[in-house]
Amino acid sequence: MLFKSHYKSLCISALVLLKDQEQAEDVVQDVFLKVWAKRKELENIANINGYLYTSVKNACLDELRKVRFTDDIVEVEISDDAADPFHSVRLKELNQQLQLASQSLPAQCREIFERVFLDGKKYQEVADELGVSINTIKTQLKRALARMRNVMEKYR
Amino acid sequence: MKPLNEQIEELIADKLSGQITPEDDELLAQLIRTDESVRQQWEESVELISFYRASKKVEGIDEQMAWDDLMAKMPSDEEPPIKKIKPSTYKWFAAAAILIPILLTALWFGLFRSNLKFNEQHAKNAETIKVILGDGTTYTLDGHKDITTGEIKFGAQSAQRVGGNNEGRENQMITLSIPKGKTYALILDDGTTVKINSASTLKFPMFFEGNSREVQLDGEAYFEVTKRNHQPFVVKTREMDVKVLGTKFNVNTYPGNDAQTSLVEGSVAVSDHTTKELLIKPGQAAIKGGSNLIRVEAFSADQILSWLKGTYYFNNMTLRDIVDITNRVTGEDVYITDSKIANYRFSGALKTDKPIKVLLENIKSSSSMVQYQIKDGKIELY
After folding, report:
1. What residue of B is the nearest CA neighbor of A96?
2. CATH of the domain at A100
3. Mutation test of the interface with chain B: which of A2, A7, A112, choosing the one with the most B Cβ atoms within 10 A?
4. pLDDT attached to residue B135
5. Which of B27, B68, B106, B264 could be bridged to B248 by S-S, CB 3.0 to 4.6 A?
6. Is the separation of the CB atoms in B201 and B179 below 8 Å?
7. Chain B residues within 8 A of A149 when measuring between CB atoms
């Protein structure tokens, strides 16, 4: 079923642009609705994934144009190529590889990576929580970043 | 001294985790601007972290639930799910500079119930509701008699279908023209209900054929549309077309306002004949003024839909605008004879089931500069 196998990946690409999970899910669901409504016309498209993916991206850009958008941590320039060198088909693979890569990090390394970048905690906080020095934090972070970046490289 | 790359890594990590110092922030920004390889490293890291974050968030998504959600949104014979209406961002008594004291709606009830006999002899607009068929035949609905044409029976205040069989019937376009001071409720061929406001005209076919259901609106109406995926419902107005996917929404296109479509439930796509379609969500309104592109805003349900219950809110509106709206919805003829007072602003509400004198008294009591009198059947404000 097209929906189930691609829903999450499409949500990821929407989320990267929109940052809000509910909004991202809404956008992806709306795209599915529209595609469903047009399904007769789309019967002949060879790459339905590509189409889905491009539709989601366009829908996100439309959303962004409607509302001015700032992210207090990172400001990303919105251009038509924003945050998106990845081809839809490989998006799912990429996601899996990234998950694998993070799983394969040494436990503490991964912990540190996630606490800093996902939970948004300060270095000192994490250092205290895990009982290590700030230096350790920084070293581990760099290692994690390097490993993950390698994975991304392959999908460019 | 650490190798340059490592130092940059640190800066980037600091920035992405939200704990970079202002000086380092400056430094990093400058490096990104001036050094291509730094910029690349930066962008790759941003991608990585954004992607990773998104990926983690999405982990929690249950595809089955999302699928159920989607199925629920899909046009079918079931009722649509109730969507959250976004909280109103429209502040009522906004702190703008108001020349005249604000009229509280609380004053309405009780205080001014008039014991004075209100002389109804002043000229109330005597226009009637007209039904015009495709061949030009015009009927007037004056309340004495119901008019039946084809499948539809037009009563004095509402119409409905009688009989249900369209076979063998010739289709035709019907124009329903509602004058000032009246409203009308109607059920279309597909079960869609429409409430039409004063001074509005709706043109619609007796039954819907073809691959879309089209009606034409001039003025204001509130729609509750039956979902039919294969036959989208389209409301055409001079300023914008509203394409509907099974929903509840209000379209307001009176001259002198910006045209506005406000969505209560479901989803509609709005286009203005020049731009491509804009999807709006419940709680949002698409507004088009003059030749401007359509913009989307949140709307206050009270403000926009209160007319369905016979109440109109005025928020810091000029007397001139208040009079225009009042005339339109009550059919009265109120004039402002002193042009100075036309620009005074008032806030309050009008209820169409109360005599107009109530509104007049309220305006008079909230400003010492405004009086009214009824002369020869006309109401003058001065």
Report:
1. B55
2. 1.10.10.10
3. A7
4. 77
5. B264
6. no
7. 44-45, 48
Find which of A19, A27, A29, A143 to mutate to test the B interface (most B CBs within 10 Å of its CB). Answer: A29
CA proximity to B211, closest of A40, A87, A52: A40
The pLDDT assigned to B103 comes to 37
Cα separation, A105 vs A80, in Å, equals 34
Look at residue B215 in the predicted model and tell me its pLDDT.
93
Residue of B nearest to A153 (CA): B44
B296–A74 C-beta distance less than 8 A: no
Domain boundary among A84, A103, A137: A84
The answer to whether A145 contacts B48, with C-beta atoms less than 8 Å apart, is yes
Which residues on A lie below 8 Å from B44 (Cβ)?
A: 149, 152
Pick the CATH number of B92-124+309-382 from 3.40.50.150, 3.55.50.30, 3.30.450.20, 3.30.70.120: 3.55.50.30
Closest Cβ–Cβ partner in B49, B51, B66 for A29: B66
Cβ proximity of B195 and B221 under 8 Å: yes
Instruction: Find chain B residues with C-beta within 8 A of A100's C-beta.
Output: none
| ipTM of the complex model | 0.73
Residue of A7, A33, A122 with shortest CB distance to B63: A7
Which tokens is A155 given? 């999908």
Number of residues that this document lists for chain A: 156
Q: How far is A116 from chain B (nearest CA, A)?
A: 6
Q: Taking chain B (382 residues) in consecutive chunks of 10 residues, what is each chunk's mean pLDDT?
A: 67 84 86 84 82 80 78 57 36 34 34 34 57 79 72 77 63 86 85 88 87 89 84 85 80 79 80 74 77 73 78 80 84 80 79 81 76 76 76
- Contact flag B54-A116 (C-beta cutoff 8 Å): no
How distant, in Å, are the alpha carbons of A115, A149, B53, B297 from that of B59?
17, 20, 10, 32
What is the bridge-based pairing of β-strands B334-336 and B378-381? parallel
pLDDT of residue A60 exceeding 60, the answer is yes
**Interface touch A85/B45, C-beta < 8 Å:** no
Q: What is the mean pLDDT of residues A100-127?
A: 86
Percent of chain A with pLDDT strictly greater than 70: 76
Give the domain range for residue A122: 92-154
- List pLDDT tens digits, range B75-84: 654 333 333 3
Is A79 in the same domain as A132? no
Prediction pTM value: 0.43
Instruction: Tell me the domain boundaries of chain B.
Output: 4-59, 92-124+309-382, 125-299
Return the CATH fold of B125-299. Jelly Rolls (2.60.120)
Q: Do A76 and A98 share a structural domain?
A: no
Q: Which of A84, A114, A129 is the last residue of a domain?
A: A84
Are A138 and A80 part of one and the same domain? no
Probe site for chain A from B12, B14, B17, B83 (most A CB atoms < 10 A): B17
Q: Which of A40, A36, A77 is nearest to A55 (CA)?
A: A36
- What is the rounded distance in angstroms from the CA atom of residue B43 to the CA atom of residue B258? 43
Residue of A nearest to B49 (CA): A117
Distance (Å, whole) CA B37 – CA B39: 5
Residue with tokens 């790459």: A47
